[in-house]
């Protein structure tokens, strides 16, 4: 499956963590959530589980370790081995190899929607060669949000445990940069025109307005088509567009491309594209490098999914103290989301039973609470945050995200909507749209390749 479809969302470089502080905090959280004693009925379980994920460092590794610690408190004789790769692309490639070897891990990570369900319709036609099995006998779907259950189900069967809900269309900002220059913070009701004026105001203060790490072109794709487009057109249009039900000639697509080029190339939209509002080395940077620019107060803002919250916090920043977040500006109030899921591989043996127990833990309020505390996301369970064993796990930023999820128009991430290797070069086209007439190059690509979506 293409980079465009699967979207490498959680790639984080290895960096030093204050492990002693983290481990002490994690132990306290787990004991508070689970109690210090072990369930007598669980001590008989023993053995090893193989789990595959792309969470290897930072807030993401901390989050997974926290969820596994909940499980360890209940099943002390079970060991979980994380067959981790540093990127989603590498993790998926390894899974494809393990399919050929008939050696899939007991459970593995996917994004909800198409990325998950391709393992169910592995032959592209039906479920006869599914690599994962229905979950309803192991974990009830009734506790999760209906919208998540629908995206994790096929033909009435529920196939994965959602761990979280990530908002993709988020705009993070350094409070210090705005305070130092006496510029007002971005707001949730900011229009694109107001946002553009804010970018010009920041640039006039000799500060780079927006950080971009576009070494992998999914970052610019996300900005253009998961941030700008739904803010202009709304979530319903956004989903319909990526399902092949609209036209690349629609006026909202033109507005989206114009806004992206305004940010990328500047008001004059010069062919050199060197007068925009991003850092000049954007195309050579990883997305985590862009977050570092904001955290070092060199750049004012960054458009990124709220996994950025976990990244910032793992590096010492405090939400609503050092940094803030709003929905990416637009006239429509939308929540573009993804969810990380784990499935039960269709296999037999002792580890299969142990993996089923692990997924039951992942579906528990204890695990979801602690996991999302570190991940920067909100739980996938349809439970008010005040009902968790320790409501203090969720700070004011997560509580606001929770309210937005409840009240905004929801749209699924592109990784959950695109069902084949469609528009694989769109990200590269966006990144290279800096010569001659950049709008024409993007529009031409969409006109040529959009019919692919109508065939899915």
CATH fourth-tier homologous superfamily of the largest domain: Periplasmic binding protein-like II
Distance between the termini: 14 Å
Helical run tally: 20
Largest sheet: 5 strands, mixed
CATH topology of the largest domain: D-Maltodextrin-Binding Protein, domain 2
Indicate the percent of residues in helices. 40-55%
Average of per-residue pLDDT values: 86
The CATH class of the largest domain = Alpha Beta
Number of domains: 2
Overview of this structure, please?
The two termini are 14 Å apart. Helix 2 crosses helix 3. This protein is of the alpha/beta class and 456 residues long. It contains 20 helices and 14 strands. The strands form 4 sheets. The chain has a 5-stranded mixed sheet with strand order 2-1-3-13-6. A 4-stranded mixed sheet has the order 9-10-8-11. The chain has helices at residues 3-6, 19-34, 58-74, 88-100, 114-117, 146-151, 175-180, 192-204, 218-233, 235-242, 251-265, 287-295, 307-314, 350-362, 365-375, 396-407, 414-417, 426-431, 438-449, 451-454, and strands spanning 47-52, 78-82, 107-111, 153-154, 157-158, 161-162, 166-167, 170-174, 208-211, 299-303, 323-327, 334-338, 340-342, 409-412. It folds into 2 domains: 3-165 and 339-414, Periplasmic binding protein-like II (D-Maltodextrin-Binding Protein, domain 2, 3-Layer(aba) Sandwich); 168-337 and 422-454, Periplasmic binding protein-like II (D-Maltodextrin-Binding Protein, domain 2). 43% of the residues lie in helices and 12% in strands.
């Amino acid at each position: 499956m293409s980079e465009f479809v699967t979207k490498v969302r959680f790639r984080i470089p290895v960096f030093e963590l204050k492990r002693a502080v983290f481990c002490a905090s994690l132990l306290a959280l787990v004991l508070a959530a689970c109690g210090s004693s072990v369930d007598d009925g669980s001590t008989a379980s023993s053995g090893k589980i193989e789990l595959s994920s792309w969470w290897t460092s930072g807030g993401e590794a901390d989050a997974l370790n926290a969820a596994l610690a909940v499980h360890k408190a209940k099943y002390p004789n079970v060991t979980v081995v994380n067959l981790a790769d540093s990127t989603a692309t590498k993790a998926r490639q390894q899974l494809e190899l393990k399919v050929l070897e008939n050696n899939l891990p007991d459970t593995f990570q996917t994004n909800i929607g198409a990325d998950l369900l391709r393992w169910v319709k592995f032959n592209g036609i039906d479920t006869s060669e599914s690599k994962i099995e229905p979950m309803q006998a192991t974990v009830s779907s009734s506790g999760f949000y209906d919208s998540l259950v629908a995206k994790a189900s096929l033909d009435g069967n529920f196939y994965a445990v959602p761990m979280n809900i990530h908002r993709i269309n988020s705009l993070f900002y350094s409070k210090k940069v705005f305070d130092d220059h006496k510029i007002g913070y971005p707001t949730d009701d900011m229009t694109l025109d107001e946002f553009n004026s804010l970018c010009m105001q920041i640039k006039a203060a000799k500060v780079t307005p927006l950080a971009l790490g576009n070494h992998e072109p999914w970052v610019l794709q996300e900005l253009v088509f998961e941030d700008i487009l739904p803010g202009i057109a709304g979530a319903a249009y956004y989903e319909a567009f990526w399902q092949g039900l609209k036209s690349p000639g629609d006026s909202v697509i033109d507005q989206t491309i114009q806004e992206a080029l305004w940010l990328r190339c500047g008001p004059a939209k010069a062919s050199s594209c060197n007068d925009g509002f991003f850092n000049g080395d954007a195309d050579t940077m990883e997305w985590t490098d862009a977050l570092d620019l904001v955290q070092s107060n060199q750049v004012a803002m960054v458009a990124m999914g709220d996994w950025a919250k976990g990244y910032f916090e793992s590096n010492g920043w405090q939400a609503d103290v050092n940094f803030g977040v709003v929905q990416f500006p637009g006239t429509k109030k939308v929540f573009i989301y993804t969810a990380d899921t784990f499935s039960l591989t269709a296999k037999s043996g002792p580890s299969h039973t142990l993996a089923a127990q692990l997924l039951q833990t992942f579906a528990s309020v204890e695990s979801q609470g602690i996991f999302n505390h570190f991940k920067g996301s909100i739980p996938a369970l349809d439970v008010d945050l005040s009902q968790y064993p320790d409501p203090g796990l969720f700070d004011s930023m997560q509580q606001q995200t929770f309210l937005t999820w409840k009240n905004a128009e929801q749209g699924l991430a592109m990784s959950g909507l695109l069902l084949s290797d469609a528009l694989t070069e769109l990200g590269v086209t966006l990144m290279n749209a800096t010569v001659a007439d950049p709008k024409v190059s993007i529009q031409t690509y969409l006109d040529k390749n959009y019919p692919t979506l109508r065939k899915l």
